Amino acid sequence: MSDSVAAPSRRRRVTPQSLLQGSGVLWFTIAAAGQWLFTYYILGAYIPRTASGDYSRWNETGLIEGYVQGDWLGNLGFISHVLLAALVSAAGVIQLLPMIRRKFPAFHRWTGRAYISVAVFLAIGGILLIWVRGTRLNDWAALGTTIDGLLILVTATFTLRHAMARRIDLHRRWAMRLFVVVSGVWFIRVAYMAWAIASGGAGMRRTLDGPTDILVPYLAFLVPLIVLEVYQKARDSRSAPFKLGVAGLILVCGGITALGLFGAWMMMWSPNILI
């Protein structure tokens, strides 16, 4: 959706296309701010606890047990996965900025390669942590995260292939899909908190096996992917009503994202930050 950031700055009349692009810019701005907040949370929560050498304090930051006594390899894999996730969250936003692509193409190419490499590493590592180490809340949620990891591998492959073949438009479309699935864990937190605030926690249980708890890990990446595809179709379409309808949809998604970010920051992230 960030392609719309590249729209010329000169004054022009409001059209369905410009409204659609504007809605995309707004959502991306909200999401970008949320990605940076997530990065700050990871660094602020895990680096001080790791630097102190008291690794068991990783378990204070969430429901998943990160530190396991005596499992040095698994502990190393866990903290590497977490800290690299912070890098990917920050880098993904930078990669989608049109200004970076235009003014610093070499930087965009090299950081893109690094981004794809780390994303693939995280996808494979995450699947191993879930099913080999057992770092998961429940099997249903783990399956959703695993599907998201497999989608990362697929979208990363097509993003790289189209970039190497200089099929730039296709490359950008696949890069946005990659951004969405790489952000799957972030979307889970945002969606979970948005639903908790809006519904009062309907379908959620403390044991995290309620209907909502099971559905969110799937919907958190499937819904954004579907919305992205609809947005892409609307950008290519000549139908003004279609463009306006999708612009409205994106605005609603932006509001939901903002609500979920507020909840995640207030209840999940900020309480665990030590710096």
TrEMBL record:
InterPro entries: DUF2306_membrane. Keywords: Membrane, Transmembrane, Transmembrane helix. The chain crosses the membrane at residues 19-43, 78-100, 112-134, 140-162, 174-195, 215-232, 244-268. Signal peptide: none annotated. It comes from the Bacteria. This is Putative membrane protein DUF2306. It comes from Maricaulis maris.
